[in-house]
Amino acid sequence: MKYSKQKIWNRALSAAGVLTAALLFVFFYGSGTGKTLYGWVAALVCTELFVLVGLRFVPAWTDQWFCPKPVLPPDEGREPPFLMAKIFVSLLLAEGVTLLLVFWLRTLLGDAESFWADLSFWTNLDSRHYLDIAREGYLSEGEWGRVVQLVFLPGYPVLIGLVDKVVGNTLISGLLVSHLSFAGAGCVIYRLLRLDHSRKTALRALKYLVLLPGAFFFAAPMSESLFLLLCAACIYCARTGRWVLGCFFGGYAAFTRSPGLSLLVVLLLEALALLRREKDAKRFLRRCAGLLLVPAGFGVYCLINWKVSGNAFQFMVYQRDHWHQQMGWFFNTAAYQLENAVVSGPHSPELWGLWIPNLAALFGGLLLMIGAARKMRPSYTAWFLAYYTAAMGATWLLSAPRYLIGLLPVPLAAALAADRESRDLALTILCLVLSPLYLCAFVLRWNVW
Questions:
Q1: How far apart are CA 257 and CA 229, in angstroms?
Q2: CA distance 353 to 376
Q3: Gap between the Cα atoms of 128 and 171, Å rounded
């Protein structure tokens, strides 16, 4: 009987999802946005791929709900000795290698004098905003370029400021926070993935975390590494019985980057899975109360906005007026990204450094998830869908690869999709080709953000 109910729910949820996507797309089409044929094709394909991920999520989630059995990884005995230390050191070395590669490339171009002096090159990104905030905080008046830095959340510069009290150099402090956070994130991610997957799969996911195009952003003095660590710690603590601590990490993630609010999705689904197994409504309600810590982290940021500018949502004003950034639909993003790529000349830096990488991330992330969604914990797929909807829906998206590499389900999806030796080899070679090319585009400053 329960299996027939599951089929009914599968069909109902799938139909509701498809209908919702279709209505949104029709509304977008009827809004007179003036898209070209290229744009409409890109928008339609992106929508269809997104729906396919959702259709693969539905049966995985109903399996978990109607057949609530713990999913255990293969029994592989004790972990190899010092494995966590090896992961930590390996990822720390990977960050150091990234710095050296950038210095070497800039030396070949004749742009670098010494390694230490050339570290300032990393401030070409949004990192300079974080470093300014770490040094001086937010400004309510003064130079416009400093005032609009209110859009950058404080979680990362707060830690830089603490480390800088010892180091005395904000750039070095930012690099230390990023590199140590990335190495720590690798250890937590491994522990988290071992709750569901084999040792080989968990290590393969870490490999793709390092190899995916854009992974060099983890080495930059930016919030990506810290955000990755906080998200992994949030989910790991929640899944291992430390719910409040996990929600606290989720709150700090939302205090670090606004997409941290998407953790509410994965935490809510995990709470529902526990309710189904334990059948304890009181514990479920307590867990739901703990979820309030996540928006509370973002609420603290809004309070800072109010204290600095008198408007709790002033960051939205600056994003709109200074960066032309507002919330939109991810399929509209696919449309204008392809349109911009088409009109760009073949020798345009924007084509190779901005539009093509963004399109590759937009479509590549969905393709990876389609291949892995049935093998992945359903809450992680739902997390991807929520995060993708918000982050890729920006009306002037410049950083799609950077936004997606910081989303844990993406490297996990790569590991699950490459579950055969031949696939793993092919995907590894592809990453080894594309990642250095994207790094070169970054060094050449071809609008890689």
A1: 12
A2: 31
A3: 9
Tokens for 249? 């990490």
Question: Count of alpha carbons within 13 Å of 109, Cβ hemisphere only?
Answer: 14
Six-digit token string for 57? 């999520």
Report pLDDT for 328.
87
Quick one: tokens of 165?
Answer: 């009290």
C-alpha span between 351 and 271 (Å, rounded): 44
* Tokens read off for 187: 């250890």
pLDDT along the chain (449 residues), means of 10: 76 92 82 75 94 95 81 74 95 97 94 88 94 94 91 97 96 97 98 94 97 96 97 97 97 97 97 91 94 97 96 94 87 93 90 96 96 94 96 92 95 95 96 97 94
- Which of the 8 DSSP states describes residue 137? -
Dihedral sign of CA atoms 416, 254, 213, 190 in order = negative
Contact residues for 54 (Cβ-Cβ < 8 A; gap 6+): 14, 17, 21, 385
| ∠ CA 435-53-272, rounded to 5° | 115
Amino acid 319: pLDDT: 93
The radius of gyration computed from the CA coordinates of the chain, to the nearest angstrom, equals 22
**255 closest CA partner among 293, 301, 224, 306:** 301
